[in-house]
Amino acid sequence: MKLRHSLPLLGILIATALRAAPPLPVAKPEAAGMSSERLQRVGAFVERLEAGGQIPGAVTLVARKGKLVRLEAQGYGDLETKRAMRTDDIFALASMTKPIVTVGVLMLLEEHRLLLSDPVEKYLPEFRNPKVAVAKADAPGGYVTVPAQRSITIHDLLIHRSGVASANGPGGVVLREAQKTLTDDATLAEQVKALALAPLNFQPGAKWEYGASTNLLGRVIEVISGQTLDVYLRERILAPLGMADTGFTVPPEKLSRLAAIYTVSPEKGLTKATQQRTDPKFFSATGGLFSTAPDYVRFCQMLLNGGVLDGHRLLSRKTIELMTANHSDPIPLSFLAGQYFGLGVAVQKADGDSGLISSPGTYGWSGAYNTYFRIDPKEQVIMILLVQRSPANNLDLQYGFHNVVMQAVID
User: Fold this and answer.
1) Partners of 366 in the β-ladder
2) DSSP letters for 270-313
3) CA 29 to CA 408: how far, in whole Å?
4) Whole-model pTM above 0.90?
């Protein structure tokens, strides 16, 4: 399975033809200080993954110094129908949604419509006087509750130190029962109220735990702005950046470009999984957006530019500095070794433990289907890998891609 939609430059030209304008100005790699020959290793890397049955296909994008130097589609967007992957294929971003929502929160911070120190109950009263679940084997349900020592803050939510309940937490049975009452059309507001019924997993601020905190941030955005999260993101971020293929829904006329999701196992190989709902009423801030590589690079370039793109300023340079500062260290996840957590992104430290060929300060995030992006501010490199396969956090995919991109920097 070595179908390549196009050679890299031709892929860029095809993507350009499919849009009103290219996502970024196009340049030959050497004009941006990268090696054309070495960038071919990206395509070879994807081919090896396809041949090994690890992915059905991928879209890879590389930009440097504000110029697009590689955009290529390889393999299949759907194995069963043998539909070739396209450079403008639409992918479920999963947790690559979180950095976009984080920018939405930081825009409200800049407008002084919230403070990071604000207690969450200021906007979500259902979280007033939270209880914390403490495991106790002989207690009903296996835990007891104690009062939270302080409120959850907006900052806690941004850095995943809120303690918000999870299905696998001490009070998970309460959360699961609350969620059973929700219909398929439950809104973000209803989902968040269900979260509030369950005790916290730990005292606010006590430790780092990845979970549903970003959904609370999405609901805070709705309360402050008076808009649903989809409208707020579209009007404040997606439309100004020209991200026309990004949103919580995929309209019927674009479904032919939706990349299928697969699981992979040694026993069954690649197996088509259930597709994320493309017409949700629940606008999941933790992982509900769909997007394309040409769209997402515009978001990344805005961050790399210090908050502005094509005359549209979303954030100040100082706010980007706050976003990428060290807010939580270490991150207790093995696939993020050598990185600390900023606001919505992981940031590479200078200790070398990450094993990544990039500069300290390189930042980004990934998603449950192994979507992945990183921005190296020193080298002015943006790299995006869009695939649709689980299990998540596959370092062969994510870090392999990262390193074959960065080894092509020659100047």
Assistant:
1) 372
2) EEEPPPPPSS-SS--TTT--EE-HHHHHHHHHHHHTTSEETTEE
3) 9
4) yes
Reference 341, options 102, 218, 207, 160; nearest CA is 160
278, 282, 287, 288 alpha-carbon torsion, rounded to 10°: 30
Q: Which of 396, 342, 326, 284 is nearest to 106 (CA)?
A: 342
Residues facing 200 on adjacent strands = 132
Q: Give me the domains of the chain, ranges plus CATH numbers.
A: 8-102+230-406 (3.40.710.10), 115-227 (no CATH)
Please write the tens of the pLDDT for every residue from 200-250.
999 999 999 999 999 999 999 999 999 999 999 999 999 999 999 999 999
Q: Which amino acid is at 61?
A: L
Q: How many CA atoms lie within 13 A of 258 on its CB side?
A: 23
pLDDT, one tens digit per residue, over 150-200 is 999 999 999 999 999 998 888 888 999 999 999 888 999 999 999 999 999
Q: How far is residue 169's CA from residue 345's CA, in Å, rounded to a whole number? A: 24
Judge whether 367 and 392 are in contact, CB under 8 Å. yes
Q: CB within 8 A of 335, min separation 6: which ones?
A: 393, 395, 398
Rounded CA Rg of the chain: 21
- Say how many CA atoms lie within 13 Å of 38 toward its Cβ: 16
